[in-house]
Write a structure and sequence with these properties.
The complex is a heterodimer of chains A (353) and B (412). Chain A is an alpha+beta fold and 353 residues long. Chain A contains 9 helices and 16 strands. The chains are: A alpha+beta (353), B mainly beta (412).
Chain lengths: 353, 412
């Protein structure tokens, strides 16, 4: 579904190259490196067309195999690395991006998810900028004409509505995070850090305008990345919705991308002792019969994070199903229940002995 | 709405006044009213390090959590009953205020009715809470947030003159931290009044813990990044009438705390409990126990070791025991349950018969008339005919050296 949106977008890109040539944007490296954020997204020159999310030259679109759930928002992701520079490959953690790099993520809701290429409401674009002193995050909220987006430091709440794949009317109060909330998840050893672009979550084909290509191979070929092995030798998580993959791997991939940025020794939820990274091998640490520590009423009266064979007696499921701010997980970025994620985790926990 | 916000923010900017001192400290003033959520959050993000954010007297309503990530910021109200931050309408955020930057000071304000925790400070060096009130105004309720004041994985923690009421876990909870002072504070109507968990070097003194389920807890739990809690002094506290039925959600360790527990030590080493006033605690005044649940962490020590209890003033206790004190202890000791109870869980057969090594022993030197029981659980399990409770307090006489007081950089 998500990839279909991207391929449609890619097609749109191709058909609009002539217009893009006219409106061609120059990336403003100085603005990216400035201590103060730009007031308008356009000052960075990352897009040639905001309404159609067409990136400027040198800005590469990408997708994650299993993405973070954010209230069913569709996301358009892009990476920019300054000319002549490269990110260096890391097999386990996020790639090491050079100063001046940007990770761009736009959040959008098609009016009807059954026709995701039409009538897309673009909400915000978040930038993670690698500056001299480390990463910095800013959110830009679009104006109604989608001509530009304005910096929002303290965040914002916006009502959104759409029709889901099953034809049901859905709505929520979408939350644009403030800078601190960004850092709430984007923290690694107390430093601001990206989450998504890890080898294992990039290692798949992407439909670029010029044709389909593995993302690690593409990034290497266009100079965004250096030091990457052949895709076959790089790690890879399954798509959490891919029913042909083992349920254990799908669930761990889901927890890895949705939870492990906090729930790891180096993350903001280290205090809980619940560590949900893809490769966490200690059973107690990933929740198997692990007791809560400071969950308070987040425990829901249950004894264990994961009660083997009993999803409904597992705190993990309870907290992912909740919308109560004193109970729900993740703490930010979600105002709705991710039904498909819950279904997978229940299936997984039911299968654990 | 957006215009209002901009206006509010501009008002904040124009309110910045430099003090006449050479070391200019900027003060950002905030008033209650519409748009205060964004105005205050924006101030918390844009403030220069070292700034003071002043919250004028009044009632502030928030719908989302606030967060502070700028170093050396003071957030100051006009008094714990004058400046009230209400989170009754909060729909997002796991706490009222989250602090992730060091040198923070929160002073003279109240945080009320957060769905989650009140004020959390995570991973910071130097944090001070002075004259802060955190309260769930409907009283004890399982739907209240877990912790009132909640510094965790932090260093140099000062909690002074604070009041916390109604937390469904611990009113004042310091977890996985070190160099801690909790003093002159009042914890009332919480499940645990004050809890020091998996922490090193904590001085807890001159506090009042009353009408909680348990007054003051010193715990250590397994499977956590910081374990081996030690060096905790609990003294000059008034721990009386902790008589609120346990309302913690099951699953949490504090849900096992019996109603009417005065001071409870679980695991931990080098804990000194002295000169406290303890009375009207219906289960027992002082409870020293091992971590009671199964665990699979080879680096964890579940026993209380090197505990020194002396000079406490004991009033009536143990008259209506609850939970494990009722089910396991009362059948062995009868009623009233003694003022001080140790489960006698020790490491190994030798210790079961002859007591732990001197440096790991439990020492009790209390005033005449104080009652005591060692339940001798391990010995009881080893001997086929069991072991009876040892109530001879004289056998436990002795002392351990008293550690030097904790000193904090924010007090220098």
């Amino acid at each position: 579904m998500f990839r279909r949106v991207l391929s449609v977008l890619a097609a749109a890109l191709l058909s609009m190259t002539t217009i893009a040539a006219v409106a061609r944007a120059e990336i403003n490296d100085a603005a990216l490196l400035a201590a103060r954020p730009a007031k308008l997204l356009s000052e960075y020159g990352l897009f040639s067309d905001y309404a159609n999310q067409m990136p400027a030259e040198g800005v590469v679109p990408y997708a994650l195999i299993t993405p973070l759930f954010t209230d069913y928002a569709h996301k358009f992701r892009f990476v920019y690395v300054p000319k002549g520079e490269h990110a260096t490959y890391d097999a386990k953690e996020v790639m090491n991006f050079p100063v001046g790099s940007v990770l761009v993520k736009t959040f959008a809701y098609p009016a009807d998810f059954r026709a995701p290429e039409k009538d897309i409401r673009i909400i915000e674009t978040r930038l993670l900028i690698r500056q001299e002193k480390g990463w910095n995050a800013w959110a830009y909220v679009y104006d109604e004409e989608l001509k530009d987006a304005v910096l929002k430091v303290a965040g914002k709440t916006l009502p959104v509505e759409w029709t889901d794949e099953a034809g049901n009317a859905r709505s929520t109060n979408y939350v644009v995070p403030n800078k601190n909330q960004c850092k709430g998840c984007h923290t690694y050893n107390k430093e601001f850090s990206p989450i998504g672009p890890k080898a294992r979550n990039l290692n798949m084909d992407y439909k670029y305008p010029a044709g389909s290509e593995n993302q690690l191979a593409h990034w290497s070929r266009v100079g965004v990345l250096e030091g990457a092995p052949a895709p076959a030798d790089a790690p890879r998580v399954p798509d959490f919705l891919d029913a042909s993959a083992p349920v254990d791997a799908r669930a761990r991939a889901y927890l890895d991308v949705n939870c492990a940025h906090c729930h790891r020794l180096e993350g903001p939820a280290s205090t809980s002792g619940l560590f949900l990274t893809w490769d966490e091998a200690n059973k107690t640490q990933w929740g198997y019969k692990k007791r809560p520590v400071a969950a308070g009423r987040g425990s829901g009266g249950l004894d264990y994070d994961i009660m083997p064979g009993k999803p409904d007696q597992s705190i993990l499921v309870y907290r992912l199903q909740s919308l109560d701010p004193g109970v729900m997980m993740p703490e930010v970025g979600r105002t709705m229940v991710h039904e498909e994620g819950i279904a997978l985790l229940k299936e997984w926990i039911a299968s654990i002995e | 709405m957006m215009k209002n916000t901009v206006k509010a923010f501009l008002a904040v900017i124009f309110a910045v006044v430099a003090t006449p001192l050479a070391l200019a400290q900027s003060v950002i003033e905030i008033e209650p009213g519409e748009g205060v959520q964004e105005a205050l959050q924006e101030a918390l993000i844009m403030a220069e390090p070292g700034s003071v954010i002043e919250l004028k007297a009044g009632r502030y309503e928030f719908t989302g959590g606030l967060s502070l990530d700028v170093e050396n910021i003071t957030l100051r109200g006009a008094g714990m009953n004058e400046t009230v931050l209400s989170f009754a309408g909060q729909t997002s955020g796991s706490e009222g205020l989250l602090i992730t930057a060091g040198g923070a000071r929160v002073e003279a304000l109240a945080v009320e009715d957060t769905p989650g925790d009140g004020i959390k400070a995570k991973g910071v060096d130097i944090v001070t809470f002075k004259d802060v009130r955190v309260e769930w105004t409907r009283g004890p309720n399982a739907e209240n947030g877990a912790y009132g004041l909640y510094p965790v994985e932090s260093k140099n923690v000062l909690i002074d003159g604070c009041v916390v009421k109604g937390a469904s876990d611990a009113g004042i909870y310091v977890g996985q931290s070190q160099q801690i002072i909790v003093r002159n504070s009042r914890a009332e109507l919480n499940v645990a009044g004050i809890e020091i968990e998996n922490s090193y070097f904590a001085d807890v003194y001159n506090n009042v813990a009353t009408h909680n389920t348990g007054g003051i807890l010193v715990f250590d739990l397994p499977n956590l990044p910081q374990m081996g809690g030690h060096s905790v002094k609990v003294y000059n506290n008034k721990v009386v009438a902790n008589d609120t039925p346990n309302f913690a959600p099951p699953g949490n360790i504090v849900a096992t705390v019996p109603m009417g527990t005065g001071i409870m030590v679980m695991a931990n080493r080098e804990v000194e409990i002295f000169d406290n006033e303890l009375s009207d605690n219906a289960s027992t005044n002082i409870l020293l126990v091992a971590y009671p649940r199964e665990y699979n962490d080879p680096t964890y020590n579940p026993l209380p070791r090197a505990i020194y209890v002396h000079g406490n003033k004991h009033g009536k206790a143990g008259f209506a025991p609850d939970q494990a004190v009722k089910d396991i202890i009362e059948p062995r000791t009868g009623t009233p349950v003694p003022h001080i109870v140790w489960d006698g869980a020790v490491d190994g057969i030798w210790a079961a018969f002859f007591g732990p090594d001197d440096e790991n022993a439990i020492y009790i030197s209390e005033p005449e008339g104080t009652t005591f029981a060692n339940l001798q659980f391990v010995k009881d399990m080893i001997l086929p005919w069991g072991a009876s409770v040892d109530t001879d307090i004289e056998d436990y006489a002795g002392e351990l050296p008293s550690r030097a007081a904790v000193t904090l950089p924010q007090e220098k």
